[in-house]
Specification:
With 391 residues, the protein is α+β, with helices and mostly antiparallel strands. It contains eleven helices and seven strands. α5 packs parallel to α10 and α7 packs across α9.
């Protein structure tokens, strides 16, 4: 209050407790920015603004939740993102009528195209650089107050298999790591089922020496290969989940030591054969190469029906499972974008950033289905080389 004045000032001096900017734990990289989103929406918006400093970066705010009134921000690049995509995202968010939104996972389940698919159709990330690169490709980023995870739409299946570090290393290294990831993706999903199918139905496919060694290791095992694989897979998944829930200091040690101790004890007791322990261990290691947790857990879930099909129908069941999975992936959409794009439907121009990681001077166009508003991301003739007249 001021003396001899009939009006006063009301100043909002309240301060919210907030977490500082830290490195994302689930998306760590060897080379790249170390900053991640926090639970404070204003901080997350400023982090994006610092990455992309053009006025074309638009942020539209709305409130979702009758009681929590959670603030949600839709971020996109004007002139790059398709207007139909922006309107579709707004429509789906405005359609949500719920009493509270405590995490972005609430919104993800409300706006995805197919809620009954195990495969995620919206990408979530803590990394600011991942969100910024998605904006530059014509995608939409959804920021939610109270959570460090931003939602990115639309995505493809291959978006889940790409890491931010692929684009920070030299393109040859990024391509090699990407191919290694694809190979171990197939191993993670198919190796236990192939082992069960071969042991149960297709002995002639195994070399005689190896078959004798495997038969010797299974002499005292009371269970068929199908039951043996299911026991080991369930045990391994339980150990991995326990390692995640335990404190960080002891979680990794407990999961690794527990797997070694239980595996060795099971082999010594004659419950599980040594080759099966090795197969499950390789499969578990292969599943860790998938950079996105929600994509990795979907593949881990698909492993169990594949094992059941292999134990009942052999390699025919494995092929049936692959066909059904591929057909399901072909039917999925992420805000209208085909899930297996640009392979199905084929778009040769976009293949430069799927099976390989082309050098940056060759990635002169944005993805076909998301960045058509501004197709070219760089000027022509960016290939490096000596300047004219240099010796």
């Amino acid at each position: 209050m001021v003396d001899q004045e009939n009006r006063g000032f009301s100043l909002g001096l309240g301060k919210w407790e907030k977490r500082g900017i830290e490195e994302p734990v689930a998306e760590a990289v060897l080379r790249g920015p170390r900053e991640g989103f926090t639970e404070t929406l204003s901080v997350n918006m400023s982090l994006l603004r610092r990455k992309i400093r053009t006025p074309e970066l638009k942020m539209k705010s709305m409130q979702i939740g009758r009681r929590t009134r959670t603030e949600v921000v839709i971020s996109y690049m004007e002139g790059v993102a398709e207007q139909t995509l922006i309107e579709e995202v707004k429509t789906r968010l405005q359609r949500i009528d719920i009493d509270g939104v405590l995490e972005s996972g609430y919104i993800e389940e409300m706006i995805e195209d197919n809620s009954f698919s195990p495969f995620p159709q919206i990408l979530n990330t803590e990394r600011v650089d991942v969100a910024a690169s998605s904006l530059l490709e014509g995608r939409v980023v959804i920021l939610t107050d109270g959570t460090p995870f931003a939602l990115i739409a639309p995505i493809t299946f291959f978006s889940l298999l790409h890491s931010a570090e692929d684009y920070y290393q030299r393109f040859m290294i990024g391509t090699a790591i990407r191919w290694l990831r694809y190979i171990f993706l197939a191993i993670s999903m198919l190796l236990p089922s192939l082992y069960v199918a071969v042991l149960t139905f297709h002995h002639v496919m195994v070399p005689t020496t190896l078959l004798i060694s495997m038969a010797r290791s299974r002499e005292e095992i009371p269970f068929p290969a199908l039951v043996e694989a299911l026991i080991m897979e369930v045990t391994f998944e339980a150990l991995r989940e326990a390692g995640v829930r335990l404190p960080k200091q002891v979680g990794a040690a407990v999961s690794i030591v527990g797997a070694l101790v239980i595996g060795q004890a099971a082999v010594s007791a004659g419950i599980i054969s040594a080759p099966m322990v090795m197969v499950v261990a390789i499969t578990g290691i292969a599943s860790f190469t998938v950079p996105r947790y929600n994509a990795g857990i979907a593949l881990r879930l698909m492993r169990f029906p594949m094992i059941l099909l292999a134990g009942t129908l052999g390699l025919l069941g494995v092929m049936l499972g692959i066909i059904v999975t591929y057909t399901h992936l072909c039917t999925l959409r992420s805000f209208g974008v085909p899930y297996l794009s640009p392979i199905s439907p084929m778009k040769v121009r976009d293949m430069r950033d799927v099976l390989i990681r082309s050098p940056w001077w060759a990635l002169n166009t944005r993805p076909h289905l998301t960045g058509e508003g501004d197709q070219y991301r760089q000027a022509p003739g960016q290939k490096p080389g000596p300047t004219r007249g240099s010796e």
